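During the reporting period the student researcher (J.K.) took over the structure-prediction task from the postdoctoral fellow and processed the backlog of single-chain submissions. One of the processed entries is reproduced below for the supervisory committee.
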Amino acid sequence: MDIHTLHIEHVVLLSLYTLLTLVNCRLHRGAPGGYWFPVYNLSALLGACLIALRGQIPDFFSIVLGCWFVVFAYIALYVCSAQFFGRKIINRNLLIAFCVVSFALLVQWGYIHPDTSARLIVYSALLTIEQGLTAAFVFHHAKGSLRASSSLLGLMLVLLCLSSFIRILGVSIHGAPHDYLQAGAFLAWIFL
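J.K. obtained the following structure tokens:
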């Protein structure tokens, strides 16, 4: 299966998932962090939509904003987790700085000096950091009746973190085609 088709399927699944989280959020009003979970899903959905539209919309939107929305999604997931567990969010200025630096890096390697390999390495490194730190946070605070569900979220984040790290290694060794959506089996499997 080609990577473009995988992105379209991803958009469909994220659309359904976003709707489910919005309904769940309405059913459980007032749940700590409740509104950040749909923000996470919606941001991931916007990013996936923009990436899937590569070649049909300007590269700045499909490459830079598409990847940035996915990076922002994991910040929203961290904030959701922190609020859900009733913990203090790490320095907000650090989160804002992470957003700004990630945007600058994506603009650099996705628009000013387009280099798919460099962009995928930077993008994957950003995701590895976010997913790894959020997984550690979730595992650290999972206690009592939340241990099972939190452990599943943590496990999912660890697996995503590993796939992002493997993409860094693979792209570092083998490179990536100029058009990411024309990537071969390795990048398709990592995305899957």
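The committee noted the following: The two ends are 10 Å apart (CA to CA).
J.K. will present the remaining backlog at the next meeting.
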